[in-house]
Amino acid sequence: MSAGSISETFKPALLVIDMQEDFCPPNGSLAVTGGRDIVPVINNLLRLPFILRIATKDFHPADHVSFASNHSAPNNVPFSSVVTIANPSNPDETETTKLWPVHCVQGTPGAELLPELDASRLDRVIEKGTDSRVEMYSAFRTPFRNPAMAGSGLTAVLKENGITHVFVAGLAADYCVCYSALDSAEDGFTTYLLEEGTRAVDPSQDGWGQRRQELESKGVKIVSVDGEEVRRVKNLLA
Ligand code: VGL
Ligand code: ZN
C-alpha cells in the first residue's frame, strides 16, 4: 500500500440462506424454480477467502404457525392465505404473513442441506424459524420490535469477527434472502445480494420485482458474481 492511500477495512462474510431440499426441485414441498441450479455458483463463492461462511436452515417444528395445514378452512390455502401473528410479548404488535405448505420440518429429509452444497467450507450453520409461534424469514431475527424477541445470534457472530461487509445468496430471493439482507444492512454491514446466487418464489414484478426495489431503497446493493464487489474478495488472496 502506498503512503497516503486510504485503506477502508474490508472483512467480508458470506451468508448462504436455506439451501435445503424442501426449497428445491425435484422433491421440495416449497420448491423454488431453479433453486438447485444455483449450487455451483454458491460453491464457487464458498471457495473465496471470505472471513466467515455461514449457512442458515429454515428449521420448523411440525406445529409451526406458517404451515397452512395448521389453520382452519377456508383460510388455510398454501401460497395464498395469510395469518396475522402477534408478538408473543405484546398482542398489539402484529404481522400479517403468508401461509405455506409444510416445509423444513426438524428431523425430516426436506430440512437437510442439499448434499451437493460444499458444506465442508461452512464455519457455522444457523437454524431459524424454530419458534412455532412466529414466522422468521430473516437469518437475524423476527420482525417483532416492541419488544424485540431474541435473535439468532448472527449479528454478534459477525461483529465478534470484525465483519464489515455481508454477501447474501441462497433461497428464496423474495423471502428469506431479502429479509436477511435488510436486517444485515440495518445492523450496519455493507450488504450485497448476489444476483446469480439466488432464485425467487415469485419472480414477477409483484413479487421479486417489488422486493428488489425495497432492498435498493434500504441500501442493499444487488451485485453480480462477476462484479467488482466479489473481485475484491478474490483479491484478498493476493
Ligand atoms: C422461506 C417461505 C417460508 C425462505 C422460508 O427460505 O425463503 N420461504 N419459509
Ligand atoms: Zn419457513
Structural key phrases:
alpha/beta, 21% helix, EC 3.5.1.19, 8 strands, binds zinc ion, 6-stranded parallel sheet
What would a concise description of this structure say?
The protein is 21% helix and 22% strand. It has 238 residues and is α/β, with parallel strands linked by helices.
Report on the architecture of this protein.
The protein is an alpha/beta fold. The protein has a single domain, classed as Rossmann fold, CATH 3.40.50. Helix content is 21%, strand content 22%. It contains five helices and eight strands, in the order βαββββαβαβαβα. The protein has a six-stranded parallel sheet, with helices on both faces. The protein has a two-stranded antiparallel ribbon with strand order 3-4. The longest helix has 14 residues. It binds pyrazine-2-carboxylic acid (VGL) and zinc ion. The site of pyrazine-2-carboxylic acid (VGL) has 11 residues, from α3. The site of zinc ion (ZN) has 6 residues, from loops. It is an enzyme of class 3 (hydrolase). Pathway: Cofactor biosynthesis; nicotinate biosynthesis; nicotinate from nicotinamide: step 1/1. This is nicotinamidase. GO terms for molecular function: metal ion binding; nicotinamidase activity.
What oligomeric state is this?
A: single chain
Q: Tally the helices.
A: 5
Structural class: alpha/beta
Q: What is the general shape?
A: globular
Please identify, by name, the CATH architecture: 3-Layer(aba) Sandwich
Q: Proportion of β residues?
A: 15-25%
Strand order of the largest sheet: 5-2-1-6-7-8
The level of helicity is: 10-25%
CATH top level label: Alpha Beta
Pfam family, one: Isochorismatase
Keywords: Hydrolase, Metal-binding, Pyridine nucleotide biosynthesis
GO molecular function, one term: metal ion binding
InterPro entries: Isochorismatase-like_dom, Isochorismatase-like_sf, Isochorismatase_Nicotinamidase
